[in-house]
Amino acid sequence: MSERDVSVRQRAVDLLYAMCDRSNAEDIVQEMLTYLETADYTIREEMVLKIAILSEKYAIDYKWYLDIMLKLIRIAGDFVSEEVWYRVIQVVVNRTDVQSYAAKIAFEALQAPACHENMIKVAGYILGEYGNLIALDPRSIPMIQFDLIHSKYHLCSTTTRSLLLSTYMKFINLFPEIKQYVQDILRHDSNYRSSDVEIQQRATEYLRLSEICSATVLATVLEIMPPYPEKQSPLLVRLKQKKPLTEAETSSEPFAATTANPEDGPKLAESTIHLNQPVQQQQNGLLLSFDTLESNNSFNDATS
User: Fold this and answer.
1) Pairwise CA distance, residues 20 & 25, whole Å
2) Per the record, where are the segments of Polar residues compositional bias (predicted)?
């Protein structure tokens, strides 16, 4: 790893990836994370993919997996592709045993003075789904959670703001006691009269929905995500697109650890209401909101 020749360092990374197994996974992942901080820019995205794949494949404790993934986003946020942070969300949704821990570390990650936008996306989504699991802690009561998320809002791109507006709607359902406060944010001129059509439409529709729907209807519309059907990891698909895998890299066992058990995971009502259809038609394909993720699990289908 200390060689000056980039091609030699690349081969070292490939070798570490190929030789990784359950007995040495933690050491190899940590070594790759350490090197990532100073790695050549040309290999960082591939390293991010390989670290994400190894940490999920060999995770015995999924709290360790989440710690690694959030550290990965913090270290190399610019090189974390959509597939990587999508996958973090999918793992959390599919594993009820780590959802409370995920909410806790997502909340802590947002407290950093400088927070990468991909971290805001992941934390915003997780807190919108599972923020209630940490709401009894006086350090993370609903209002503190909301204010922390909203403090990042004006620093974000339109796509991330759209996702955060969906988080705000989820908060109205999770925490009725702050409903009026959240509605005031949605009603604010920067959203309600935004020059960006997507933000304006989303804020307007969410505000109207929160005003006319009963608590029962809102609970149905904004119910937590159901487990995702487990398919081939989209990270492996992405890595294959970047570089053909060797036999050693493709011979490992599949990602069975996150297979959902219908009796363990949250349920979604059969009649799911999809919000803001125009968002799903945007060309960039980013996860803009909770409704985008739940719309036929389109991201998983696209990579299967």
Assistant:
1) 6
2) 248-261
Q: What is the mean pLDDT of residues 188-204?
A: 87
Residue among 8, 78, 79, 88 nearest 55 (CA): 88
**Which range among 18-27, 115-124, 222-231, 235-244 shows the weakest confidence by mean pLDDT?**
235-244
How many Å apart are CA 131 and CA 10, to the nearest integer? 40
Q: Read off the pTM.
A: 0.77
Other Cβ atoms within 10 Å of 188 Cβ, number: 12
Helices within 58-188 (DSSP H only): 62-76, 82-94, 99-110, 117-130, 142-153, 158-174, 179-187
User: Which token pair is 21?
Assistant: 């197994």
**SS3 category, 190:** helix
**Residue bearing tokens 């990602």:** 255
For the chain, domains (ranges, CATH) are 6-303 (1.25.10.10)
